[in-house]
Amino acid sequence: MEKNFDHVLPFQLEESAIRGRLVRLDQEMWKIIEQHNYPTVVNNYLAQATALSIALVNCFKFDGLFTLQISGSGPLRLLVVDIHNQHEVRACARFDEEKIKGLTSEAAKNIQQVFGQGTMVFTIDPEAGEDRYQGVVELSGTTLSESTHHFFRQSEQLETGVVLANGTSVDTLAAAALMIQRLPVPQNITPEDRETLDDQWIHALSITGSATRQELLDRNLSNEDLLYRLFWEGGVRVYGSKFIIAQCRCSTEKIKDMLTNFSSQDRHEMVFEDKITVTCEFCGIGYKFSEDELEGKPA
Ligand SMILES: [Zn+2]
């Protein structure tokens, strides 16, 4: 069976009002990690946040930009994942190298020690039509999953359960997100039916929570086999998967546009060895310009 990693796979649990998304990232996530030269702790959060973002963006039908931004006052100050048109992903981070090194392995697993007091912000910016949506939540619990649960509870979105995992060497997949969501309960059902739905949801949550890091990141286990292994009891139906690609959207034109908005004076101060050099924080590509190139009109 084709493995379909670097895809998001939507699924539905049979005979229950629960849908889900499975994201397992391999080459494309390793590519993003390799573009940067971040410490392992930063890579761990970068990989989990990327898998989470892909699972989330797939729940919304829109073309445009999705951004997940986690920021705080701790060693890892900022983490940004952005996804364009549901499939082009890029991610980067800003951190204090010394403070990251100073984290114990226990502290490194605690989101509030890594980011300090912080917030998680989700933004959906559709290209046309609908309004921009922004959701903000304070980091809580110890993991990114717990903060995500907190977000869904407080934002009156669908009840959601999510587990995240990331690999630390290319022997395994780079990252995984398994997310389930409970569809709204119909108004006019009997108390018995409501209880059945509640039980199904609690059961599905406990199964989701039982997914191990090892199986989530096992390259020899296909997405479908993993889902059947977990949810075999009630049955699971999978839908068409969608591919994900690590791709930055920076270009000479965009960087040039940004620089031409600076004053000549500011640009002059950026000159080093006759050139203004800008390095894209997402992909690491460097762009070089002469001062003349950036003047509104040639001198
Ligand atoms: Zn770039």
- What Rg, in angstroms, do the CA atoms define? 22 Å
CATH structural fold name of the largest domain: Hsp33 domain
Q: What class, by secondary structure content?
A: alpha+beta
Please give the CATH architecture of the largest domain.
3-Layer(bab) Sandwich
Ligand identities: zinc ion
State mean pLDDT (0 to 100 scale): 93
The percentage of residues in β strands lies in 25-35%
Helix content: 25-40%
What is the end-to-end distance? 62 Å
How would a textbook summarize the main sheet?
6 strands, antiparallel
Order of helices and strands: EEHHEEEHHEEHEEHHHEEEHHEEH
Can you say what the CATH homologous superfamily of the largest domain is?
A: Hsp33 domain
User: How many domains, in number, for the residues?
Assistant: 2
Determine the number of helices (DSSP H or I, runs of at least 4 residues): 11
CATH C-level name of the largest domain: Alpha Beta
Shape type: elongated
Runs in which pLDDT lies below 50 for 5 or more consecutive residues are: none
Describe this structure in words.
The protein is of the alpha+beta class. The chain folds into 2 domains: 7-246, 3-Layer(bab) Sandwich (Hsp33 domain); 252-294, no CATH class. 33% of the residues lie in helices and 29% in strands. It is built from 11 helices and 14 strands. It has helices at residues 27-35, 40-57, 97-101, 111-114, 144-154, 191-210, 213-216, 223-231, 252-260, 264-269, 291-294; strands at 7-13, 18-25, 64-72, 76-84, 88-95, 118-126, 133-138, 160-166, 175-182, 236-238, 242-243, 245-246, 276-279, 286-289. The strands form 3 sheets. Strands 1, 2, 8, 9, 10 and 11 form a 6-stranded antiparallel sheet that branches. It has a 6-stranded mixed sheet with strand order 7-6-3-4-5-12. A hairpin with a 4-residue loop joins strand 1 and strand 2 (18-25). The longest helix is centred in the last third of the chain and has 20 residues, at 191-210. The relative contact order is 0.17. The mean pLDDT is 93. Residues 248, 250, 280, 282-283, 285 line the site of zinc ion (ZN).
